[in-house]
Write a structure and sequence with these properties.
Distance between the termini of chain B: 43 Å
Radius of gyration of chain B: 21 Å
Strand content of chain B: 25-35%
CATH topology of chain A: Folate-binding fold
Radius of gyration of chain A: 14 Å
Oligomer: heterodimer
Number of strands of chain B: 18
CATH architecture of chain A: 2-Layer Sandwich
Largest sheet of chain A: 4 strands, antiparallel
CATH topology of the largest domain in chain B: FAD/NAD(P)-binding domain
CATH superfamily of the largest domain in chain B: FAD/NAD(P)-binding domain
CATH superfamily of chain A: Folate-binding superfamily
Order of helices and strands of chain A: EEEHEEEH
Largest sheet of chain B: 8 strands, mixed
Strand order of the largest sheet of chain A: 3-4-5-6
CATH architecture of the largest domain in chain B: 3-Layer(bba) Sandwich
Number of domains of chain A: 1
Shape of chain A: globular
Chain lengths: ~100, ~425
């Protein structure tokens, strides 16, 4: 697979390590009353769809940026690649 | 018909006209006591033990494709019980004992071959870890033996024991481990279940569950609604897809694991060997092909095919311990989809929906577990209580902190 890095252009997926579902950006609020249940769901439950999947890849063998890759898990086709920090900022997660 | 040597001779003398299909091809009835979704090894074994050991009647197995066409025909056929943790080892040892009596039990030649499995050791730390594992196995009634390099060379003279980076320092052997003809397992269980009245319905895909007031009343399928008092799901690889129809999210990701077969060779590999420094394992099939595999590709996939970096990694592992493999040509390779769970261990449990039961999360260890998985799931379905060897395989273990994490990797499914 070729991942089209927003800063570096097309790179071999072997340069990256894979973390998983991009919903891991949405870390629950630890002060919430239901934090225990929320952290269980956050840490352990996954949608795991057959089809488009937004997922986190880390460019370990490159510029060490985190990417959100939208990829089809049935065809391995990559639809879009974004910088994870842009995605997180758009969600108000990061400064 | 009971298969026997006498039957073979009798049929040979009468022109082989008396053989009947091994199981009937049926259309579904409107209602069953128990419906098993998934006609793979685990689903068929569940139905077989429900009928044979737990006296259940009116059982159906519904299968999206055909019997033997799923993961039961896509694995590398290894059986073993060399686990470390208390939640796992008694279960896998129970499974190995069932394998040992399986062919007589279901009257089918599954070619169970206890040729032994050998986990190679490449460092002192690994020797300590494998000694501990061997002791855990022995404590749970399994067999284990630490072998020296000299003992290994006697049996496997072509192994590269003097590799500069990963010299072979010994090995942990389980002599009762081995291989089985995998599709014969599906056929044997299908035939054994069918002869005890289990309805096997092929080409019948589940499209939804009928759930009312927190109770599962049956399944919607491409062959219409099938009512059921209890529904058991055994579709490892596609568990998340199926259970999403009951609006459940599971503690697992689906990943692809590749497997490889070389061209047919003369007998070179008497048992199963595994590389301890990378991920490579290999056995030789009775047809002569070297059957080998390694790591999963590492990202969510339902594609049933992998990519080249892992092919290269697996073959490098093979070359490190078995340089002669470099002269063999690769004949076939394929990918199978597995439920990679959050701790690397399976789930056999009730769901929060009454009448809906779940079996899955087998990671890439599902084949060896087939008999015990079927037995334990049948026990759960028939008695509403977990089998004594499968009490740890609960959904809520991630909430309560009772993970069964053999490799200590945490909630990162692609590392298990």
């Amino acid at each position: 697979m070729i991942i089209n890095h927003p800063l570096l252009g097309p790179r071999d997926s072997a340069e990256f390590t894979y973390l998983g579902d991009a919903r891991l950006i949405d870390r629950p609020d630890w002060q919430s009353d239901t934090a225990t249940a929320e952290f269980h769901d956050y840490g352990y439950l996954r949608d795991n769809p057959a089809g488009n999947h937004r997922e986190l890849w880390f460019h370990e063998g490159g510029d060490r940026s985190w990417l959100v890759v939208t990829r089809n898990t049935v065809t391995h086709e990559i639809k879009s690649v974004e910088l994870a920090r842009d995605v997180a900022r758009a969600q108000g997660r990061s400064k | 018909m009971r298969y026997s040597g006498f039957q073979v001779i009798k049929q040979a003398l009468t022109g082989h006209k008396g053989w009947a299909p091994a199981w009937r091809d049926l259309e579904p009835q409107p209602h069953y006591d128990i419906v098993i979704i998934g006609g793979g090894g685990h689903g068929l074994a569940t139905a077989y033990y429900l009928a044979k050991e737990f006296g259940q009647k009116k059982i159906a197995v519904i299968e999206k494709g055909w019997i033997g066409g799923g993961n039961v025909g896509r694995n590398t056929t290894i059986i073993r019980s060399n686990y470390l943790l208390d939640g796992n080892e008694p279960f896998y040892e129970f499974s190995l004992k069932l394998w040992e009596g399986l062919e007589q039990d279901f009257n089918y030649n599954a070619m169970v071959s206890q040729r032994g499995i050998l986990n190679l050791i490449h460092s002192d730390a690994q020797r300590d870890a494998f000694t501990r594992r061997g002791n855990a196995m022995i404590l749970n009634g399994a067999d284990a033996e630490m072998l020296t390099t000299a003992q290994i060379k006697e049996r496997y003279p072509f192994l590269n024991t003097n590799d500069a980076r990963f010299p072979i320092k010994g090995g942990l052997a389980q002599h009762r481990g081995g291989t089985v003809r995998h599709d014969a397992v599906a056929w044997g269980y299908a035939r054994g279940g069918d002869s005890r009245g289990v309805d096997i319905i092929q080409n019948c895909e589940v499209t939804g569950f009928k759930i009312e007031n927190g109770k599962c009343l049956g399944v919607e399928t491409t062959k219409g609604f099938i009512g059921a008092t209890k529904v058991g799901c055994a579709v490892a690889g596609s568990s998340s897809r199926l259970m999403s129809k009951a609006e459940m999210r599971l503690p697992m990701e689906s990943h692809v694991l590749q497997a490889f077969v070389s061209e047919g060779l003369k007998p070179v590999l008497p048992g199963v060997i595994t590389f301890g420094a990378g991920h490579f394992y290999c056995s030789q099939s009775d047809k002569g092909g070297l059957v080998f595999g390694g790591d999963i590709d590492g990202y969510n996939s339902y594609a049933q095919r992998g990519n080249l970096p892992v092919v290269e990694d697996v073959c490098e592992g093979g070359m490190a311990i078995l340089p002669a493999i470099g002269r063999a040509r690769l004949l076939r390779m394929w990918g199978g989809i597995m439920d990679m769970s959050m701790d690397g261990s399976p789930i056999i449990d009730r769901t929060h929906i009454e009448g809906l039961y779940f079996n899955g999360g087998w990671c890439y260890g599902g084949f060896k577990a087939t008999p015990a998985s079927g037995f334990a799931f049948a026990h759960l379905l028939a008695k509403d209580a977990p089998h004594e060897t499968a009490t740890a395989y609960r959904f809520n273990r991630f909430e309560t902190g009772h993970m069964i994490d053999e490799k200590g990797m945490g909630n990162q499914p692609n590392l298990h």
